[in-house]
Design goal:
Shape: elongated
Radius of gyration: 28 Å
Number of domains: 3
Strand content: 5-15%
Structural class: mainly alpha
Strand order of the largest sheet: 3-2-1-4-5-6
Helix content: 55-70%
CATH topology of the largest domain: Rossmann fold
Largest sheet: 6 strands, parallel
CATH architecture of the largest domain: 3-Layer(aba) Sandwich
Order of helices and strands: HEHHHEHEHEHEHEHHHHHHHHHHHH
CATH class of the largest domain: Alpha Beta
Number of strands: 6
Distance between the termini: 62 Å
Length: about 500
């Protein structure tokens, strides 16, 4: 859908414009692309797409820059990958303004440092621009180069920009407009006493966006690190403190991984009805900001490692390798992706056991594998149900088809049942009496587990499971009540 289709104008076409307005309508309006018309930076978005589709090509990036500067690099990247201009995160306030000006016959030019091939596609898609001034593989059309290009074409012009490289054009324009301007640009314009005609704001609040990017709610999954210690019945103050340090170390590196995964998925996320609102896909945070955040989070995780056993560091390293393989390739391989997801849940428990020197029972590992495999299957099943409702036959960036729905549901049901069977066999063992004085009472947990697992499957079949089942569980009142009942029953069996 054209992003400007819904834009309207309050101008009265039957009312003759004033003399000043008539002169303004003949003066070209020049619009920057990255950060202005589009909230993100298309060059860095293209690099993310290049890393996803042609990861080996990233090694050539420094050579392209060395041989022909950034303009050459932009041309080479644009030749290898093609951003979907339909789903770019357009600044709706800018689009609305450009639509008004276009309807009144004003010449509008897209003037950008992006490569000409990408700028041309954006211009054709929007249908608003009289012409395009862009990088050509030789000249990087930003800063003074852009100003020189504009002066060759127009005796005077108005300009819309957002960052310091736009400063020369803004200073030389008749009227200066800004869109989500950076602080440094604001200060520079104020120092030069350049009046800003209008600020086109279209951006989410930064603090909330940063928290959304690191997905702090996903840290709930890392509570699994505490599980080996709690089930060992050997909880002490020092062991709990160690588990807390392990929790934060794991959570920081997990958030770094989420950011990297979002950057790699930036193109496919823009095609998803919910994921397109993620900070990087929506253009509320740039890819450069994301890379810096990932580095800082990884550094914070490593800063805690000296206080933790070496075995935990090895599991954390294994987690990083596994999630990197998942992000770059394995998530697109059917069935392997869900096996990886279930394995990563189990890995959390192994890391928690290593942090507190608590052995992991084979029964616990078996139970976790089947349980989390079921939940991973439910997640994929829910995504396919959503696609079916939208009339789509294949998931974008995944290897599943809507026709796989019945098979995925059977896998999820079988895995859920297997998890309950493993739990039942475990509590039937005589050595369980060592940990639980009344181990027979643990059987009361079984119906609660069956109810919760089958309820999740039922909600997914109805299309009411719109998120990760684990995240659903910590937000769903029924799930929280069932969890509380299971905890009470476990304590009841211990006393």
């Amino acid at each position: 859908m054209n992003p400007i289709a819904a834009a309207t104008t309050s101008a009265d076409p039957d009312r003759p414009p004033s003399a000043n307005r008539a002169a303004e309508l003949t003066r070209p309006l020049c619009v920057d692309l990255d950060g202005t018309l589009v909230k993100s930076d298309t060059f860095y978005d293209s690099i993310c797409l290049l890393m996803r589709s042609h990861p080996s090509s990233i090694l050539s990036l420094p050579f392209w820059v060395a041989r022909g500067g950034k303009a050459r690099a932009k041309a080479e990247v644009a030749r290898r990958v093609s951003l979907d201009v339909v789903h770019l995160p357009y600044n709706q306030a800018v689009l609305h303004f450009l639509t008004q000006e276009h309807r009144q016959g004003r010449p509008i030019y897209l003037t950008t440092g992006a490569d000409h091939s990408l700028a041309d596609r954006v211009a054709r898609h929007t249908g608003l621009f009289t012409g395009v001034v862009a990088s050509d593989g030789t000249t990087n059309m930003i800063g003074k180069h852009k100003l020189a290009g504009l002066r060759k074409l127009f005796p005077e012009f108005d300009y819309i920009g957002n960052a310091p490289p736009d400063l020369p054009a803004l200073v030389s324009s008749q009227k200066a407009y800004v869109a989500n301007p950076t602080l440094s640009l604001r200060l520079a314009l104020k120092a030069r006493k350049i009046p800003i005609q209008r600020n086109f704001e279209d951006q989410a609040p930064l603090p909330r966006t940063l928290l959304k990017a690191i997905r702090m709610h996903q840290w709930a999954k890392n509570v699994l690190l505490f599980l080996p210690l709690l089930l060992s019945h050997k909880l002490t103050g020092s062991s709990f403190a160690t588990a807390v340090a392990a929790f934060f170390s794991f959570s920081f590196i997990a958030s770094a991984n989420y950011i990297v995964n979002d950057l790699l998925d930036i193109e496919s996320d823009r095609h998803h009805p919910r994921k397109r609102f993620r900070p990087f896909a929506a253009g509320d945070l740039t890819a450069v900001t994301g890379a810096l955040m990932a580095i800082l989070l990884a550094g914070a995780s490593c800063a805690l490692l000296p206080f933790l056993p070496a075995a935990f560091s090895l599991w954390l390293l294994f987690y990083v390798v596994a999630t990197s393989a998942y992000s770059f390739y394995l998530k697109r391989v059917p069935l392997v992706d869900v096996l990886m997801l279930s394995g990563l849940y189990t890995l959390r428990m192994l890391a928690g056991g290593a942090a507190t020197n608590t052995p992991i029972s084979p029964w616990l590992s078996s139970f976790a594998i089947f349980l989390f495999l079921s939940l991973a299957m439910v997640k994929r099943f829910s995504e396919l149900v959503s696609l079916r409702e939208r009339g789509v036959t294949q998931s974008h960036g995944r290897g599943y088809l809507v026709s796989d729905l019945d098979q995925i549901r059977s896998f999820a049901t079988a895995s859920a049942t297997a998890a309950v069977v493993v739990f039942s066999l475990y509590i039937s063992r005589p050595d369980v009496d060592v940990l639980y004085r009344h181990s027979g009472r643990l059987w009361l947990i079984v119906p609660f587990m069956l109810f919760w697992l089958y309820r999740v499957l039922l909600l997914a079949s109805r299309g009411e499971m719109n998120e990760d089942p684990v995240i659903f569980a910590i937000r769903d009142r029924v799930s929280l009540a069932i969890g509380a009942c299971i905890a009470i029953l476990a304590a009841f069996a211990t006393l």
